[in-house]
Please model this.
Amino acid sequence: MALIDRSEWYDLTRATSWTPKYVTEEELFPEEMTGARGIPLSEWESYDEPYKVSYPEYVTTQREKDAGAYSVKAALERANYIDDADPGWVSTLKAHYGAIAVAEYAAGGAEARMMRFAKAPGNRNMATFGMLDETRHGQIQLYFPHEHTKRDRQWDWAHKAYHTNEWGAIAARHMFDDIMMTRDALSVAIMLTFSFETGFTNMQFLGLAADAAEAGDHTFANLISSIQTDESRHAQQGGPALEIMIKNGKKAEAQKMIDVAFWRSWKLFSVLTGPMMDYYTPLEHRKQSFKEFMQEWIIGQFERQIIDLGLDTPWYWDEFNRALDETHHGMHMGVWYWRPTVWWNPAAGVKPDDRAWLEEKYPGWNESFGECWDVITENLIEGRPELTGPETLPTICNMSNIPIVGRPGKGWNVKDYPLEHEGRLYHFGSEPDRWCFQQDPDRYKHHLNFIDRFLAGKIQPMDLMGGLQYMGLAPGEMGDDAHGYSWVEACAAAKAKSTAA
Amino acid sequence: MALFPLNSNFQGDFVIQLLPVDTENTMDEIAAAAAHHSVGRRVRPQPTKVMRIRRHGETEFFPRDMKLADSGLGPTETIDVMFADS
Model:
């Protein structure tokens, strides 16, 4: 049977919409699910997605992608790469899978909301593929780490993390719940696909793929590059939706959604991706610093897209640029110091050569973060390991749900941004975090972060063991130094050499 | 006497930390409790200095012998713990 050429039917089918007869338009597209904000259906029908694909083309391509990724995995599985890989890189993989895999599956629900409730036919069409993409990403990123569950129990957190009250999982869940699980279809297009996926998935799936290839982890490099080809397609759903909003006088609302989602995404990446790129990945395999990746993918590309659409860079852009030198270093130190509270083994990443690299990439690191690491390192050299672990909890931001950190040592600038709202005192790690809360206090005010839960008596007994139990971290799962503190020897040797000199 | 949570922002440290204290504690006692979680862990001791407490972001220190109950600080409020000459 002869097939009609794609060009003859594609535009008709992708833009197919209808006028409801048996229900009202409001019943078909309830505002709380659709979020059309009064923009008429006729305007949404002008939605023109930049990336066009038919269903047969989609499934053919996806099959090829899966075949490629799965065959690389199968071919390399017997090489047992993981057993010989640097423990820091292994930690990167464990942290990645736990923080990403189940969130991808959840993103399928967000795509499905656009698929059903977006008023733009083209958006519904693209979201159908987006939903299938995210289902694939959830499945493949659970399947790949599963072969490692025989190695240790931390690998099981690829699936387990989001089902626990581990603090990082609470933070990620709070962020993804906010930008994709509890928003209307239009907000999802802007907050998830445009704000998060356009910039930040490039960081996680292309930036990290570059490091993976350098580290010789071709299975992971191939996997996440394959995922990013989907992300870069379905991330384009937000752009045309933004164009329609701006054309119809909704620029301020669009801008606010971008500003909230972008800041929230940045903070999550500062604790997840920053330490991976600048500390866990072995020095010789680092393609660029976290800051350089951020400058390439976020400052360079995302900023240009915002401007091209006629929007403004977020109001906190200067603060964001400044924080690129600082926040993730504090997050890393916090994760390492409170290492029993994560499902991976943080690599300290502060041997003398690491520190020289950090100082080169982040001038002033030695006299700030390095000062704290000096004390930690000396405690380990001089046999005081008990001082390198926590006896209390860090104060947690009521928006990002991650610790409130800043620059230590010279130029000390650690700051709380408090807010009293309806008799409750909230704490925030930055002005933009507090601003996000102030945009919609009713949305956020009832959430209890880890410290709130602790103080409310929900964590018993009220000590570290009670906290670990609440987080679901059993022995064999809670983190410890990735390299078993072997890096301390290099530091001790360097110290002895400098003392002798 | 009652358990009372504060947040400790210790000079030179990288993170603010939960600090459980008592309403009967003096500012010197609170400073010592805060130091336990920062000094010798990530902040070098400064033996020639004393540690003073102020409400976060303010410039005036509380008197060293003032009790927490008399300070006006509320639960989970953040304090700065600073090295000072006296």
Summary: Residues 28-500 of chain A form a domain with the Ribonucleotide Reductase, subunit A fold (CATH 1.10.620.20).
